[in-house]
Structure formats: structure tokens, C-alpha cells
Write a structure and sequence with these properties.
With 281 residues, the chain is α/β, with parallel strands linked by helices. Helix content is 48%, strand content 13%. It has ten helices and seven strands. α1 links the parallel β1 (8-11) and β2 (32-37). It is globular and about 55 Å long. The relative contact order is 0.14. Belongs to the short-chain dehydrogenases/reductases (SDR) family. One of its GO terms (cellular component) is membrane. This is Short-subunit dehydrogenase.
């Protein structure tokens, strides 16, 4: 029997990319998956009548969306055994070029939404841990949490916040049976650049040509499946060698990054602009 069989798992941001791959992976292992996204058409296109999966439209950056999402899970399954915080957004460019609404959206989705949805879900996760022996919180972080580099300064800051939140939450709940994990990918082939710059693909066909360079999202989904079966809380990188990014927090590496990257700000701005243009045409 697979350890994921019959577990009720909520996966946010499931319409594409890492989220969609995670839903497919967990459902194939027998989990009962609830997922959400802002685009109902993409959800229907992704899952339709896939066994073991139910989908609902919700924006986890909004308080009303978070509350409605949790109500949907409980109404359908009566419990929650695990949550995978996948929904997130980035923006590529220098901070001085960044619109205020993009800053607000990224912080609301990547950090505030994660903390608040966890807060709402925690009583149900603790109940599941007491009754069924375990519960899990999986936070989709990034290697950018350790090496905060332009043109992803605000994105990196939110992921550093997610990393700190995970450490603190572990110290609140692990003794009560809730494991807290972070999955920290390197570059992944997803739509995040187009989405972050206001051009979310409306269909799978529309998404062609908009994917950023990187590893396949299925590799990240496999690691999510692994940590949901781990015997203790985990922090994992995808690929594993990407853990070298942790050196970015240590002197003298951090001082070298300060000097080298700040002197290349103009080149970074131009490179980010080219990457965005290529994916929003």
C-alpha cells in the first residue's frame, strides 16, 4: 500500500507547471487531491474528470479565496491531511523598474497567502496528525531563498521569508505530528515569467513558447511526493546539486555577490527585459 493512498492533499496553483505535475503525481499514488487556480478554464483543461482530483477556482492571495478554498476541502472530504503551497509568482527586472501592484501581488501570493492559508488549515492538520499519525505542510520555496540575486530581488525576498516561516513553524508543530518541508527548485520550465508580467496563458496551446528555461516540473513534483512520505521534516533542492546555492548566504561569497552583481545592474536589466519580451509576445 502506498503511503499516500487515501490522504487528502490540497495543492494550490494546480492549473499548470509544477502544480499540475504535482497533482498528477499525487493522484497517481492514490491521494485524494483538491487543487485550485484563478483560471477555471485551465483547471478544466488540466483535470476534467481525472479520478481522485477535484478542482475549484480560488485566489489564495485574497482572504476570501483562502477561506472558500478550505471550506471546499472540508465540505468534500471532511478533513485535511496535507497542504502543498505551490501557487506563486515572480517578476524579472530591477526593483526601480517594478510596478507597485506587482510588488503587492508577489508578496500577497508568495508570502502572506502562504502564512495565512497555513494558519487557517493548521487546526485541521493537527487534528489529522492526532487521529491518523501524521500531517504535512509542503512549501514551494526556491534556491533564490539562499542566493538573493537580481533580477529577482522581490521574489527572492518572499522565498527567503517562506524559508524562515518553515523553520519557525517546524518548531511549533513537529512534536505534534505535523512535518514541515520546503522544496527548493533551481530554474524550472514553467510559465512564471509570462504570468508575472501580466500575460497569463489562457490555454495550454497559448502557453507554447512562453515557458522559461529549466528542468521539467515533473522532477519537482517527484520531490514533493517524496517529502510527503518522509519520516521527518525535510528541506530539499531540485536538482540536488542546486543546494550549493546555500553558499550565497556565507561570507565571503555574499560579499562577492554584492560587489559583482551590483556592478552589472545594467546588463542584468537588459537581459531580463529580453527574456520577458520573448515570452509575452
Amino acid at each position: 500500500m502506498t503511503p499516500l493512498l487515501d490522504r487528502v492533499v490540497l495543492v494550490t496553483g494546480g492549473s499548470a507547471g509544477i502544480g499540475r505535475a504535482t497533482v498528477v503525481r499525487l493522484a497517481s499514488d492514490g491521494a485524494r487531491v483538491v487543487t485550485c487556480a484563478r483560471n477555471g478554464n485551465r483547471l478544466r483543461e488540466a483535470f476534467g474528470s481525472m479520478p481522485g482530483v477535484s478542482a475549484t477556482v480560488a485566489d489564495v492571495a485574497e482572504a476570501e479565496g483562502r477561506a472558500a478554498l478550505l471550506e471546499h476541502v472540508l465540505a468534500e472530504h471532511g478533513r485535511l491531511d496535507a497542504i502543498v503551497h505551490n501557487a506563486g509568482q515572480g517578476w524579472a527586472g530591477l526593483l526601480e523598474d517594478m510596478p507597485a501592484d506587482a510588488v503587492q501581488r508577489i508578496v500577497a501570493l508568495n508570502l502572506t497567502g502562504v502564512v495565512e492559508l497555513t494558519r487557517l488549515a493548521l487546526p485541521h492538520l493537527l487534528r489529522s496528525a492526532a487521529e491518523r499519525g501524521r500531517a504535512d505542510v509542503v512549501l514551494m520555496s526556491s534556491v533564490a531563498a539562499w542566493s538573493q540575486v537580481p533580477p529577482l530581488t522581490v521574489y527572492s525576498a518572499t522565498k527567503a521569508g517562506v524559508q524562515g516561516f518553515a523553520r519557525g513553524l517546524r518548531r511549533e508543530v513537529v512534536a505534534r505530528g505535523v512535518r514541515v518541508h520546503t522544496v527548493n527548485p533551481f530554474f524550472v520550465a514553467t510559465e512564471w515569467l509570462a504570468r508575472g508580467h501580466g500575460h497569463p496563458p489562457l490555454t495550454d496551446a497559448d502557453a507554447r513558447g512562453r515557458l522559461s528555461r529549466g528542468i521539467g516540473p515533473e522532477r519537482v513534483a517527484d520531490r514533493v511526493g517524496e517529502v510527503l512520505q518522509a519520516s521527518r521534516s525535510r528541506t530539499v533542492t531540485v536538482p540536488r546539486w542546486a543546494g550549493v546555492a546555500r553558499l550565497g548566504e556565507l561570507p565571503p561569497v555574499n560579499r562577492a555577490l554584492d560587489a559583482g552583481l551590483s556592478s552589472a545592474a545594467g546588463l542584468i536589466r537588459a537581459g531580463a527585459a529580453r527574456a520577458v519580451r520573448k515570452r509575452v509576445r
